[in-house]
Amino acid sequence: MKGQTLTRADLTEAVHDEVGLTRQDCAALVERTLGLMTEALERGATVKLSGFGVFQVRAKRERVGRNPKTGEAAAIDPRRVIGFRASQVMKARIDRALAG
Description:
This protein is of the alpha+beta class. 44% of the residues lie in helices and 27% in strands. The protein is built from 3 helices and 5 strands. The protein has helices spanning 8-19, 23-42, 88-99; strands at residues 47-49, 53-60, 63-66, 73-76, 79-86. The strands form 2 sheets. Strands 1-2-5 form a 3-stranded antiparallel beta sheet. Strand 1 (47-49) and strand 2 form a beta hairpin. Helix 1 packs across helix 2. The radius of gyration is 19 Å and the shape is extended.
């Protein structure tokens, strides 16, 4: 999978290969899992997946930015953004994979 994007279809196929449920059941499982994560983030909850990382909603305050073409100051409205912080286990696995 090096250099490719992992899609929902890829996740569904991986679950199918590992668990052996029907592809339709695996697709429903993947969709439900992603849906639960999305619902939790919409509520402002933190989603922690041990050994993988933490998804967290952060509030960004209003600030002044610059238009890159003109350099003119522009107000950036306050908003909520999703952040991801990889676990130490994930970081170590990525480092090992990229090193060898």
